[in-house]
């Protein structure tokens, strides 16, 4: 009887423990955090493309910078907020809500509905959002690259 209990107990000790290398936070937690924007581009139909490497520093003073804040909503969904600050102007904010995070190899795809809008790896965040023209509103494309400090 003791041998039978021993034979049952030994396999349980091997299956009950999870290796540390297998412990991976969920995609939402992995992508969440604050990122410093290093590049931003905006294209609006009928106007010249605007591109900036950020931060913009003149005479030792930062005159333009950007921050992207990503908040975990659930295991596979995040909310985001891009804020661009330009000295002498109101902050410009672009909210992103209900973005799905899906593992794709060593990175994560960011999806709004069925549209892929970017990628993230837990350190870097690349986003490319397009809005088609509608009525009198022109088509807009916004891209940015950001990294956790």
Overall form: globular
> What is the CATH topology assignment?
Lipocalin
Spans of 5+ residues with little confidence (pLDDT < 50)? Answer: 1-16
CATH class category label: Mainly Beta
Main sheet specs: 8 strands, antiparallel, barrel
What topology, given as strand order, has the largest sheet? 1-4-5-6-7-8-9-10
Mean pLDDT: 88
How would you describe what is shown here?
By secondary structure, the chain is mostly beta strands. It has a single domain (25-147), classed as Lipocalin (Beta Barrel). It has helices at 2-15, 27-31, and strands at residues 33-44, 50-53, 56-58, 61-74, 77-86, 92-104, 107-112, 115-120, 124-131, 140-147. An 8-stranded antiparallel β-barrel has the order 1-4-5-6-7-8-9-10. The protein is globular. The relative contact order is 0.20.
Outline of the structure:
With 149 residues, this protein is mainly beta. It has one domain (25-147): Lipocalin (Beta Barrel), CATH 2.40.128.
What topology does this entry show?
Elements: H1 2-15, H2 27-31, E1 33-44, E2 50-53, E3 56-58, E4 61-74, E5 77-86, E6 92-104, E7 107-112, E8 115-120, E9 124-131, E10 140-147
Antiparallel strand pairs: 1-2, 1-4, 1-10, 3-4, 4-5, 5-6, 6-7, 7-8, 8-9, 9-10
